[in-house]
Amino acid sequence: MRGERSSGAVGPDRSEGHGERILGALLDRAHELPPQLIAPLVTDVVRGFGGRDPALLLQDYGQLVLAPLPGWGLSAGEPVRIDGSPAGEAFLRGVPVEVPQADGVRLYLPLLDGGDEVGVLALTLEAVDDDDRRLLRRFAALVADLLITKSGYTDRIFQARRLEPMSVAAEIQWSLLPPLSMTVPQVAVAGILEPAYQVAGDSFDYALNDDVLHVATIDAMGHGLDAATMATVAIGAYRHARRADIGLAEIYAFMDRAVAEQFGPDHFVTAQMMRLDTATGHLQWVNAGHPQPLLIRGHVVVERLESATTLPVGFGGEQPVISERVLRHGDRVLCFTDGLVEEREAGGEQFGEEQLIAWVNRVEHSQVNVRAMVRALSHTLKEKRGGRTSDDATLFLIEWR
């Protein structure tokens, strides 16, 4: 797969090897590729590698299964459960998984894009060596970028991921969200919303600007389209203020005015805004009516991050108190909305923060990366609440690395 220079040649070797030609052809064609030709292109490249039976498996909105993307040359079939499957293992761990079969090796390659994971590329080869693994890893990265880029021009990728009817409010909320996770050497984040197909007022946002991670979680009052509209204004105001490089107190004030002017004095949004210096671990936050975040250290909740609480956004609160804490390497901070702990159990009692903490401690020991942790915790908590999520429930996890 390495290029060879001709005898007596001088200067840098710019010849193409077999693998580079295949990946180069993908890059050359990707720029103006219509979305419907993603499947044939992936199929052609897999055949060029000597592979067969390719499949593009995409995470559904509920984060329960990997749904096949339909298209010419791609293997179809039923969605694959994430838990307990080789494809799910590749997805959750973010590493390739190889399964020997009678007619070769079935490979499952995570489709990673900036630490977020689109899904899994599956294919079969007769045999696999290190050159194959290196080439396929790069190919999977290109396919992930291709899917992310082209998803802005087509509905087909969204439709493949949507396995249940989705409300208009949820449609709005999903269009607002950043990637559900991000992993870089200094910091990792991951979030999840419930109920995935009916969420209305909950949302989150983040941005990594140089060494500073900005995070916001919000919960707009009410349900349905009213809540989704209010959440849209709140997130839009947060992004606008954040991009003006102003402080947390000024961000709060700007969001407060935007919600009050648009919806009047009887509407509000609870919110939590944070800034983490990823070089030093210095965390600052303003709590506008949210439950206190949990500090996780050594896979155990060690305390609630108590802080002075200001009024929710839209109520015209005074200058908020900015709370501060210096994190240790490996610390995790879990933010959540009240729908997670205020759900009533079968006996009529609230689920409560004590149960949440107990389950965080259990799940923390079974999951390594933040994306798998948030997903496992959300699904476990929903199961322990009897499968009920009558109000929106959001989890957002930050790890200072």
CATH level-1 class of the largest domain: Alpha Beta
CATH superfamily of the largest domain, please?
PPM-type phosphatase domain
Task: State the low-pLDDT regions, or none.
Answer: 1-9
Specify the helix fraction band: 25-40%
Residue-averaged pLDDT: 89
| DSSP strand content | 25-35%
Order of helices and strands: HHEEEHEEEHHHEEEEHHEEEEEEHHE
- What structural class is derived from the secondary structure elements? alpha+beta
- The DSSP helix count reads 10
InterPro entries: Bact_Sigma-Reg, GAF, GAF-like_dom_sf, PPM-type-like_dom_sf, PPM-type_phosphatase-like_dom
GO molecular function, one term: protein serine/threonine phosphatase activity
Pfam families: GAF, SpoIIE
Keywords: Hydrolase
What are the salient characteristics of this protein?
globular; EC 3.1.3.16; 33% helix; Phosphatase 2c, domain 1; Beta-Lactamase; 401 residues; hydrolase; alpha+beta; single chain; 2 domains
